[in-house]
Amino acid sequence: DTEVTQTPKHLVMGMTNKKSLKCEQHMGHRAMYWYKQKAKKPPELMFVYSYEKLSINESVPSRFSPECPNSSLLNLHLHALQPEDSALYLCASSQGSTGGQETQYFGPGTRLLVL
Amino acid sequence: AQTVTQSQPEMSVQEAETVTLSCTYDTSESDYYLFWYKQPPSRQMILVIRQEAYKQQNATENRFSVNFQKAAKSFSLKISDSQLGDAAMYFCAYWYTGTASKLTFGTGTRLQVTL
């Protein structure tokens, strides 16, 4: 089973709202990722969690706050977003084993619209 | 820095025909992986095929196969017997076995499948 689930599928929020995106995997993977994808562009890496610790932050604005409560869950907390943050947010996971193959499996994404 | 180049923004193929999508990459690493991901309009990124750089044999997954030319840093995807469901954006991606490694994507090729 290579399933990564994401909720919600769609989200509309105002610039003053606080919302959260959720990602879950049950493949025993120890690395999880958040990507942002604009239309007709490749995904851009935002954050990487390895063994539940933040290992990479690609200089993402503080209005995006990631959280990894356990090895199966990854959240992205959103606050005071801007209209340009509207995008598809993808979650992915991989085995996380050092030196091993790092095939990433992606979730279906959350389509975010900031008004 | 590693880069991935997909020089064909759009391609078209007739149903049941064969099409080849091009990808070149630049790296100084010797141990790495290459991937093709498919993203249909439903937006989920789906792993199509994976190639380990240390393997000379080209990877094959059913109707999908790659032509991996390590010296030329080329990694093309061949889709045989094209089906309507193959219509999607295809991303070539690179990952090397190092700490803090990130998946590097090409800009994508949009494939249309016509009757």
Structure, explained:
The complex is a heterodimer of chains A (about 120) and B (about 120). By secondary structure, chain A is mainly β. In chain A, about 0% of the residues lie in helices and about 55% in strands. In chain A, strand 4 and strand 5 form a beta hairpin. With about 120 residues, chain B is an all-beta fold. In chain B, strand 5 and strand 6 form a beta hairpin. Chain B is about 0% helix and about 50% strand. Chain B has no helices and 12 strands. Classes of the chains: A mainly beta (about 120), B mainly beta (about 120). Chains A and B meet through strand 9 and strand 10 of A and strand 5, strand 6 and strand 10 of B.
Task: Give me a quick take on this structure.
The complex is a heterodimer of chains A (115) and B (115). Chain A has 115 residues and is mainly β.
Largest interface here, residues on each chain?
A-B, 25 and 25 residues
Low-confidence stretches of chain A: none
- What's the mean pLDDT score of chain B? 94
Span between N and C termini of chain B? 41 Å
Order of helices and strands of chain B: EEEEEEEEEEEE
List strands and helices in order, with pairings.
The complex is a heterodimer of chains A (115) and B (115).
Chain A: E1 4-7, E2 10-13, E3 18-25, E4 31-37, E5 44-50, E6 53-57, E7 64-70, E8 73-79, E9 87-94, E10 105-106, E11 110-114
Chain B: E1 3-5, E2 10-14, E3 19-21, E4 24-26, E5 32-39, E6 46-52, E7 60-61, E8 64-69, E9 74-79, E10 88-96, E11 104-105, E12 109-114
Parallel strand pairs in B: 2-12
Antiparallel strand pairs in B: 1-4, 3-9, 5-6, 5-10, 7-8, 8-9, 10-11, 10-12
